[in-house]
Design a protein that fits this description.
The complex is a heterodimer of chains A (135) and B (177). By secondary structure, chain A is mostly helical. Chain A contains 6 helices and no strands. Chain A has 2 domains: 81 residues, Cytochrome C biogenesis protein (Helicase, Ruva Protein, domain 3); 32 residues. Chain B has a single domain, classed as Glutaredoxin (3-Layer(aba) Sandwich). Chain B has a 5-stranded mixed sheet. The chains are: A mainly alpha (135), B alpha/beta (177). At the A-B interface, helix 4 and helix 5 of A face helix 5 of B.
Chain lengths: 135, 177
């Protein structure tokens, strides 16, 4: 009986102290009053990567740091910055990694060029085959 | 005819190359750190309130007076931050001046953290909404930046400082002087 109790106690979840006790930032969960601005903020937040949970956007994540980033995005947009300015500000700090929106750069241009090239090759191959068939 | 047969091997060769590439990438450990893109650039302008009542706050103007410093990003609720405390004390003993910023913290929690693990910091600023952390391109706690005498970010150490990292950080600090 005592063993059973000990086992049951061992299964109780232990509170992890690795989380802060501070309430979320004011604009982490509060929407902006201007619906148009809030829509811009939401569109931007859905394309920004959460740093502590790297497969989620900051719009999807409940991590405290994602909340702080949403606060940052909303207050900057409310302060008159454009979504692309905010994205640029973050990319200047964290690199392209922070943005989910693909951008053509010196490192990424083959990703955009190769499909076009393959399509051209396919068109040439098909045209030649059809031409041969007609002869 | 023979030329055509050679062509047939081409897709197989391509697949083999691709598999080789996958095998190579899979055998490498994944680097999940997001490094700051601000290395080599000046500290962003900031001014933070003190993290402990009565103590000094932290501003970007506290740097750039000719003396290189460490800027430690920590939090009382962060377990590895407690683990790196002895190494920070060793760095201070080695001549480093350490400034700190406490992320999402309360004055009471910071004070009891310093009581428990020591206070090697010259000044601690409070960053309740991670604003300075984001402005620095830092993605977690703890992190330590080397700031040179002109206020330029020279180096970023991600994660807790191990005993083996202490000499290298002191060296970075010396190079930044």
């Amino acid at each position: 009986m005592r063993l059973l109790l000990a086992l049951l106690l061992a299964m109780l979840p232990i509170a992890a102290p690795a989380q802060d006790s501070l309430p979320p930032a004011p604009y982490a969960y509060r929407q902006l009053d201007d619906p148009a601005l809030e829509r811009e903020a939401r569109d931007l937040m859905e394309t920004l990567r959460c740093l502590t949970c790297q497969s989620q956007s900051i719009a999807d994540s409940d991590a405290p740091m994602a909340g702080d980033m949403r606060h940052q995005v909303r207050t900057r947009l409310a302060g008159g910055e454009s979504p692309e300015q905010v994205r640029g500000w973050l990319i200047a700090r964290y690199g392209d990694y922070i943005s989910y929106r693909p951008a053509v750069s010196a490192a990424t241009w083959p990703l955009f060029a190769v499909p076009v090239l393959l399509l051209l090759v396919a068109v040439v191959v098909v045209a030649r085959r059809l031409g041969r068939g007609a002869r | 005819m023979i030329r055509r047969r050679l062509w047939l091997w081409l897709p197989l060769l391509a697949i083999a190359l691709l598999c080789g590439l996958f095998a190579l990438q899979l055998s490498r450990p994944k680097d999940e750190f997001v490094r700051s893109a601000l290395i080599g650039q000046p500290l962003p302008a900031f001014s933070l309130k003190p993290a402990v009542p009565g103590g000094p706050g932290l501003a970007s103007s506290d740097f750039a007076d000719g003396k290189p410093r460490l800027l430690n990003v920590f939090a009382s609720w962060c377990v590895p931050c407690a683990a790196e405390a002895p190494q920070l004390t060793a760095l201070k003993a080695g001549g480093a001046e350490i400034m700190a910023v406490a992320i999402r913290d309360t004055p009471g929690d910071v004070a009891s953290f310093l009581d428990a693990y020591g206070n090697p910091f010259s000044a601690i600023g409070a960053d309740p909404y991670s604003q300075l952390q984001i402005a620095l391109g830092s993605s977690g706690v703890p992190e330590t930046f080397v700031i040179d005498g002109r206020g330029v970010i020279r180096h970023q150490h991600i994660g807790d400082i191990r005993a083996s990292d202490v000499p290298r950080l002191l060296e970075e600090l010396q190079d930044a002087g």
